[in-house]
Amino acid sequence: MAHLANLVSAHACTLIYKQYQFALKCASYAYCEAVSGIFTIKNNVDEEDYLDEPAAEYSINSTTWRCSCKFMCTHLLPCRHVLYLRKALSMESVIPTQCLEERWLISTLRAPCLLPDFTSESFSVASVPPRGSAPWDVNRKYQEAK
Fold first, then answer.
1. 115-146 pLDDT, tens per residue?
2. Helix pair 10-21, 80-88: axis angle to 10 deg
3. CA atoms of 79 and 41, how far apart (whole Å)
4. CA 19 – CA 40 distance, rounded (Å)
5. Residue 61: pLDDT above 80?
6. With contact defined as beta carbons under 8 Å apart, do 97 and 7 qualify?
7. What backbone torsions phi and psi does residue 78 show, to the nearest 5 degrees?
8. What digits encode the pLDDT tens for the residues 38-48?
9. Cα(60)–Cα(146) distance, integer angstroms
10. pTM (2 decimals)?
11. CA distances (Å), origin 118, targets 115, 123, 125, 134
């Protein structure tokens, strides 16, 4: 986690840490390699958990370490399923740093922002013309439709 804190923003680190804690302490999953390089993973526990949707099965690509769960699809950060699977497969590192999205990296935040060149063509500024009349409300539309 210390290495991760040097790579990503504090917010991303907090999000991953919650997933990390759950994957290594509380989680119990059944997984199998459905196709070469594609694993399916499902919660083993029947009771509803605050992090998992009940009876949901996810797929993980072991080449890119992408999971089909909501967390990974929305945050683009490693989820508890990937972390659990990497631990179960005895990978060198539980957190796959190669799949961290650029938007979370500190190096991206510190990189100079290149602005596009402005056009040399002329332009003009004008006021917006006033609206002729107010839009019709529901009652007016009903009256006109009769």
1. 677 777 787 888 888 887 888 888 888 888 87
2. 60
3. 12
4. 18
5. yes
6. yes
7. -60, 135
8. 999 998 876 65
9. 58
10. 0.70
11. 9, 12, 16, 37
